[in-house]
Design brief:
The protein contains 4 helices and 5 strands. By secondary structure, the chain is an alpha+beta fold. The protein has one domain (7-166). The chain has a 5-stranded mixed β-sheet with strand order 1-2-3-4-5.
Length: 167
Amino acid sequence: MSSNITKNIAKSMINKSKQRLKVIVNKLKSGAPKTGQNKLVQEYGIEHTKIIGWQNRYFVFEECQTKGPVDLIFIKINAEGKLIQFNIDAKGIHPNCKFFPAGKRRPTKKDFEKRNKLYQRIQSISWRVEDKDFIHSVKKKTKKFTKGFIIFKDANNKDVTYKIAKK
């Protein structure tokens, strides 16, 4: 096994995820956020997070259980030969949401705090990742994006996105 995923395999996997993401986005963009679309929004977040993993040459593993503590695991070996692993709980925000998302991690339920700390779980939050050059305005605030955003937050709600891309 190579220490990191090869460029060709990563490129192939990215293309597959982009195709899946297009199908999901077409279903979501058809209307306003509805209560029955939670599963699609979750898949939206997972697919985009996988793309980020492959772009940064991680091996990406998915969970088998639907209610598990982590959705994805990123693994690779850094330049010093040490194993780098991230346990990620992927979240998506509906592309048609009418508010500007704060990009804050959802608080953990008391029952799962100990478990999540042991897993060292990171939460990814994806929003409008399929759009290029869009302007989002809410009331008096306007923000221009070249592409949607994804942010990775640790248990303390601190941005750790730089860790994923750097190692």
